[in-house]
Amino acid sequence: MRISVAGGTGSVGKLVVERARAAGHDVVVISRSHGIDLTTGVGLDDALRDVSTMIDVSNIQTVSRSASVRFFETTTRNLLEAEHRCGVKHHVLLSIVGIDRVNWGYYQGKRRQEELVLAGPVPATLLRATQFFEFAVQSLTLFPGPLAVVPRMRTQPVAAEEVAAELVRLAEGPAAGRVPELAGPQVMMMSSAVRKVARVRGPRKFVLSVPWPSAAGRSMANGGLLPRGPGPRGTLPFDQWLAKTAKTDVAR
User: Fold this and answer.
1) What is the mean pLDDT of residues 76-104?
2) How far apart are alpha carbons 149 and 138 in whole angstroms?
3) Among 121, 124, 157, CA closest to 55
4) Residue 252 — very low, low, confident or very high, per pLDDT cuts 50/70/90?
5) Which of 2, 11, 44, 80 could form a disulfide with 120 if both were Cys (CB 3.0 to 4.6 A apart)?
6) Quick one: DSSP state of residue 198?
7) Is the pLDDT of residue 29 over 50?
8) pTM of the entire predicted model
9) β-pairing, 26-30 with 2-6?
10) Of residues 56, 59, 243, 236, the one with CA closest to residue 161
């Protein structure tokens, strides 16, 4: 199968590309570094020639509602229109558990993306996943200094490699609309995960858990980002993932 991966050079996209290639698929990576621009549509038609399935894990780093909505509206419309022209049969989208309950600016863009995909011209599958284990590392290393400030958040994080595996599995099947949500094996406070990263992997920092002074912050703290029904669950525990990645860092 010929699969394209939008955002294929990102942290999750790389894992999707590796997993798809390991499964024997011909993979086309869609990113600016490969001469393809989702925001303008440049290069999309050439990249999608003979592609049967698109996996979209493209992303933007922002907390702005307007920036998020603008990015996801533009890139999703460009993708869907190019896919329709090129005869792509299946669009697989990665989204986030709880974005319809937590009214955060970035999540509003993801909600708009979901709407466009599910109403679009290409049969689609929508997978919502919880925060990745890797989010704890990013929270610790986002800013320099001895302090890491982490929003008070109940989460059920999952390894990005298990998300990638599920996306490829879904891409290999028919379009299924919105499928059950993917989460990790255990519920924890995000600050607890970040403290474990600081202790085991570093850098050593004091981790401060702070409630966001908003309805979105209260919802995060009270479990708004947890799955609300049965669905696939990752099997890799956070502590085991952390030990494995810490050893990898030492080896490097």
Assistant:
1) 96
2) 11
3) 124
4) very low
5) 80
6) H
7) yes
8) 0.94
9) parallel
10) 236
